């Protein structure tokens, strides 16, 4: 009893960001959702209890008392378990919840079961693979609990048929009588199977939908899974989600498993007593896209809601019926949205969008006026579905479900700037509120790099990728993928670079999003990383090629001397240096770097660059290499390996420890197989692990930034759990 009470106290403290782990406090920097949540699951056993499953950020539980979502898996070290395939809340005991977890088909998969609402988990590895972040992740709940015998659970897998547990998920056995045994793991890396798209109990029967085309359809068992029959009738489409309403089973159909690529769909109702089908597809039946989210009222089985998916023209919407699907009310055109608490949802426009990828849809089982739906960026809720004009607000307090690509902490102005996947990035001025300033003008889909002038930090540059809906084709103007700011990132101006000719090829390298940009220490010089880097000294009006560098070299600016830039020739382990502001480079005749460090050259535009210039004095360089951590204090002429006991993957600089001059070092790295977050106060000779066992975040770390103003403070970009900040416990 005491242990459970203590765990509850710690969880409450953690939700407010004040719990220390290994001498550090950890908390999220608030953005407010930001990624795809495939479904929301209300508990039928307790009012105000709900669970949210995300595709790469784990599971959340709504805490009615705190009025916020609680992340349930931050203590887990296994990355794959943050891809949630399905959640089942016990229909009788609100303390019990089951989660099917597995990110991709080649990753480990497990059933997670909890008897205290997800505060603690028992992990049951399973032999069938999952795909919580693969195509088809918006399909129905594959995990279902028998309401008449909650020891009995079914799970419909993607690749290996139907599975059954008779001991509350402690062990699993394949249902050999099920007609579709599964297609097995596809060999091609990017392909997946839909498999069994949902399992639902209705009366004394259990139903399973199969969305693999070879066996697509609805299957039924009336004898506790001993035998199964495929139900004839219904549309020639894939059953993707289902909901029970009285004696009827409502099913959403699409022609693909989504969330992209769906062109057609339908909604049908099956009378489970007599086997009669009724086409209840909302008009217009020939509209673009399909259907996916579906839910019914527990109070009135004739109340049903269904969402469209992949309907870009005119737009996605939700339909609501009060008579079992005979008549529908379309909701998007009767809706407004208040996104003042998460203003990024404006996307730089005057109004927010109803949303896309609407895969999750739920009517509160205790209040049919409350409807919730999930999108590719947020979760919306209305608490008065009967109103003439529905008001939707994001229901996301506590949810941080984003992939963060880059972070920059400034010595003046806003303390943090971020670059995200899919939602551009932000200026963070209040860590407890969703940022008021999104990185726009231009708006990027992904922001891949942000650099500031070390001696004039109001000057910044950034690079990224065009918005997902950017105009394309003849006659359209490409969206710039470069920008600069002179007010600490609060306002931006686009940068363009003319076509560049190399050999017989002329190309606009500034439109692909593949090429980074950096800035000199005083902010006067911009350098664009084309195959031959280009320099501008007039804010992008004119560009000239640098001289003396091998192709594909990417310079970094000295943080003290504005005239100095460095570049690493990975093929020859050679440092090149410019002392004329990037106009010309010459080799340094570098000593101390191992041969063959080409393996350290980033191959992806989202990877952090391994050559770093330190902020403490001119000529101080660090190289993060698979061969070790290397340090130079003479501008790259000589490097020495730092023997530290950890293998560093990513590194940045923070404020020096009290009484020291050299900056603190923060790193993502490993020691004896333990991947963690580390800090060194003595130039890398000794490292302290600063994230404890309750702050593992699946070890899904993407980049790191030290704070130059606050000793010990560090910002870590995760892949699915947003930005987390750590600082010494007070």
Outline the structure in words.
- Belongs to the glycosyl hydrolase 74 family.
- A five-stranded antiparallel beta sheet has the order 1-2-60-59-58, with no helix packed on it.
- The chain is mainly beta.
- The chain is built from one helix and 60 strands.
- It has a domain at 32-184 and 192-394: YVTN repeat-like/Quinoprotein amine dehydrogenase (Methylamine Dehydrogenase, Chain H).
Structure characteristics:
730 residues; mainly beta; Methylamine Dehydrogenase, Chain H; five-stranded antiparallel sheet; elongated; hydrolase
Layout of helices and strands:
Layout: H1 2-15, E1 20-21, E2 24-28, E3 39-42, E4 50-53, E5 59-63, E6 68-71, E7 84-89, E8 97-101, E9 110-114, E10 122-125, E11 143-145, E12 153-156, E13 162-165, E14 173-174, E15 196-202, E16 205-210, E17 217-221, E18 229-230, E19 238-245, E20 248-254, E21 265-271, E22 276-279, E23 290-296, E24 304-309, E25 318-321, E26 329-330, E27 335-337, E28 361-363, E29 371-374, E30 379-382, E31 390-394, E32 404-408, E33 416-420, E34 425-428, E35 437-438, E36 447-453, E37 456-464, E38 482-485, E39 493-495, E40 500-502, E41 505-507, E42 517-519, E43 526-528, E44 534-536, E45 544-545, E46 556-557, E47 565-569, E48 574-578, E49 586-587, E50 611-613, E51 621-625, E52 628-632, E53 640-642, E54 647-654, E55 664-671, E56 674-680, E57 688-689, E58 701-706, E59 714-718, E60 723-728
Parallel strand pairs: 27-31
Antiparallel strand pairs: 1-2, 2-60, 3-4, 4-5, 5-6, 7-8, 8-9, 9-10, 11-12, 12-13, 13-14, 15-16, 16-17, 17-18, 19-20, 20-21, 21-22, 23-24, 24-25, 25-26, 28-29, 29-30, 30-31, 32-33, 33-34, 34-35, 36-37, 37-38, 38-39, 40-41, 42-43, 43-44, 44-45, 46-47, 47-48, 48-49, 50-51, 51-52, 52-53, 54-55, ...
């Amino acid at each position: 009893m005491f242990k459970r009470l203590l765990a509850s106290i710690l969880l409450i403290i953690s939700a407010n960001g004040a719990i220390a782990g290994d001498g550090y406090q950890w908390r999220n920097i608030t953005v407010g959702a930001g990624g795809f949540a495939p479904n929301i699951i209300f508990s039928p056993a307790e009012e105000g209890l709900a669970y949210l499953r995300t595709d790469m950020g784990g599971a959340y539980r709504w805490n009615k008392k705190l009025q916020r979502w609680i992340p349930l898996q931050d203590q887990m070290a296994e990355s794959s378990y943050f891809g949630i395939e399905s959640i089942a809340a016990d229909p009788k005991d609100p303390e019990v919840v089951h989660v099917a977890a597995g990110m991709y088909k080649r990753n480990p998969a497990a059933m997670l079961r909890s008897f205290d609402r997800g505060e603690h988990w028992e992990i049951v590895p399973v032999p069938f693979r999952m795909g919580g972040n693969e195509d088809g992740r918006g399909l129905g709940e594959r995990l279902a609990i028998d309401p008449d015998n909650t020891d009995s659970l079914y799970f419909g897998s993607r690749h290996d048929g139907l599975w059954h547990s008779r001991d509350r998920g402690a062990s699993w056995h394949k249902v050999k009588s099920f007609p579709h045994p599964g297609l097995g793991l596809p060999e091609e890396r990017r392909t997946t199977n839909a498999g069994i798209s949902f399992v639902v109990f209705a009366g004394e029967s259990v139903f399973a939908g199969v969305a693999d085309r070879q066996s697509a359809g609805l299957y039924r068992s009336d004898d506790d899974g001993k035998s199964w029959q495929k139900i004839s009738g219904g549309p020639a489409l894939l059953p993707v989600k289902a909901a029970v309403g009285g004696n009827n089973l409502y099913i959403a159909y699409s022609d693909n498993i989504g969330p992209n690529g769906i062109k057609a769909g339908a909604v049908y109702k099956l009378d489970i007593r007599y086997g009669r089908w009724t086409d209840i597809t909302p008009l217009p039946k020939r509209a673009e896209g399909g259907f996916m989210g579906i839910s019914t009222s527990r109070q009135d089985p004739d109340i049903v809601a269904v969402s469209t998916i992949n309907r870009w023209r005119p737009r996605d919407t939700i339909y609501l019926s009060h008579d079992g699907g005979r008549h529908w009310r379309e909701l998007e055109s009767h809706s407004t949205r208040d996104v003042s608490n998460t203003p990024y949802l404006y996307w730089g426009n005057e109004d927010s969008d109803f949303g896309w990828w609407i895969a999750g849809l739920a009517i509160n089982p205790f209040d049919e006026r409350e409807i919730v739906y999930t999108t590719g960026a947020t979760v919306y809720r209305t608490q008065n579905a009967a109103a003439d004009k529905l008001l939707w607000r994001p229901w996301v307090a506590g949810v941080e479900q984003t992939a963060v690509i880059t972070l920059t902490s400034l010595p003046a102005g806003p303390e943090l700037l971020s670059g995200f996947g899919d939602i551009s990035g932000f200026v963070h001025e209040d860590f407890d509120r969703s940022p008021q300033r999104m990185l726009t003008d231009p708006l990027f889909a992904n922001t891949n790099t942000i650099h500031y002038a070390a001696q004039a930090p109001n000057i910044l540059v950034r690079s990224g990728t065009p918005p997902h809906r950017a105009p394309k084709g003849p006659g359209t103007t490409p969206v710039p993928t470069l920008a600069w700011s002179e007010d600490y990132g609060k306002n931006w101006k686009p940068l363009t670079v003319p076509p560049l000719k190399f050999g017989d090829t002329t190309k606009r390298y500034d439109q692909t999003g593949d090429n980074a940009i950096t800035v000199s220490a005083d902010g006067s010089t911009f350098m664009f990383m084309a195959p031959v880097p280009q320099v501008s000294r007039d804010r992008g009006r004119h560009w000239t090629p640098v001289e003396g560098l091998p192709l594909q070299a990417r310079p970094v600016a000295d943080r003290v001397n504005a005239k100095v830039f460095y570049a690493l020739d990975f093929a020859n382990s050679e440092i090149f240096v410019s002392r004329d502001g990037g106009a010309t480079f010459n080799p340094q005749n570098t000593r101390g770097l191992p041969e063959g460090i080409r393996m350290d050259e980033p191959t992806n535009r989202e990877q952090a660059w391994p050559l770093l210039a330190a902020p403490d004095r001119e000529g101080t360089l660090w190289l993060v290499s698979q061969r070790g951590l290397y340090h130079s204090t003479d501008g790259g002429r000589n490097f020495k390996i730092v023997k530290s006991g950890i293998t560093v993957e990513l590194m940045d600089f923070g404020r020096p420890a009290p009484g020291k001059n050299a900056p603190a070092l923060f790193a993502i790295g490993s020691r004896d197989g333990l991947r963690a977050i580390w800090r060194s106060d003595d130039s890398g000779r000794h490292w302290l692990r600063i994230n404890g066992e309750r702050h593992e975040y699946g070890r899904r770390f993407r980049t790191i930034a030290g704070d130059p103003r606050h000793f010990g403070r560090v910002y870590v970009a995760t892949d699915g759990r947003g930005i987390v900040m750590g600082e010494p416990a007070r």
